[in-house]
Amino acid sequence: MVKDTVSASGERCPWCTSDPLYIDYHDREWGIPEKDERALFERLVLEGMQAGLSWLTILKKRAHMQDAFFGFDPERLARADESEIRAWLDDPGVIRHRGKLEAMVNNARHVVALDGEFVPLVWSVVDGTPRQNGFATPRSVPSETDASRAMAKLLKKAGFRFVGPTTCYAFMQSAGFVNDHLVSCPAFERCGTIAASWTL
Question: Which residues participate in catalysis according to the annotation?
């Protein structure tokens, strides 16, 4: 059972359903700044996988995908071949979309090619500093921004696929490039406190 970390002083962001997977993701990951290369790559892959699907579908398949995709290790995924892609397409525990799977392998190869520069590349769009937004309503939260468009451009120039501005902004929200918890959500202050002492 996921521990309820919301105090009586506020409610979770309304996109967070009552599903324990959603609650855990909202409370323990979304909006917390991340700089580990493998973890960032996983978040980027998952956001690309989510296109056209519900996020809960991704969360329900996430543990299996972590196993199937070698812990989202870019170096191992970069060596994946057609036989592994065919095996994934037969695996109901992953997102069985050839384009998304091929993009994951392609993107892993480009992370490896960046030779340690993937993290500073993506964080450069916010100058390496998490941005603290202050949105009061879900309607106020954008689906893309100048920063996410800049990230999409940088990643596409580096050869990445399935990295449009909307996907990049969802990635930025997830990995704490921006704090888009609503100000009424207890996680807004919690993520802000973490970001205040965070360095790239």
Answer: 25, 47, 55
* Residue 123, domain member (yes or no): yes
- Chain centre distance of CA 132: 17
* Domain span including residue 35: 20-196
- List, for residues 3-61, the tens digit of each pLDDT value: 334 333 479 999 998 999 999 999 999 999 999 999 999 999 999 999 999 999 999 99
Q: Is the pTM of this model over 0.70?
A: yes
Residue 72 amino acid letter = F
Residue 146 has pLDDT above 90, yes or no: yes
Q: Does an H or E element contain 179, and which? A: strand 178-179
Helix (H), strand (E), coil (C) string for 98-148: HHHHHHHHHHHHHHHHCCCCHHHHHHHHHCCCCEECCCCCHHHCCCCCHHH
CATH assignment of the domain containing 117: 1.10.340.30
138, burial (CB in 10 Å: exposed 0-12, middle 13-18, buried 19+)? exposed
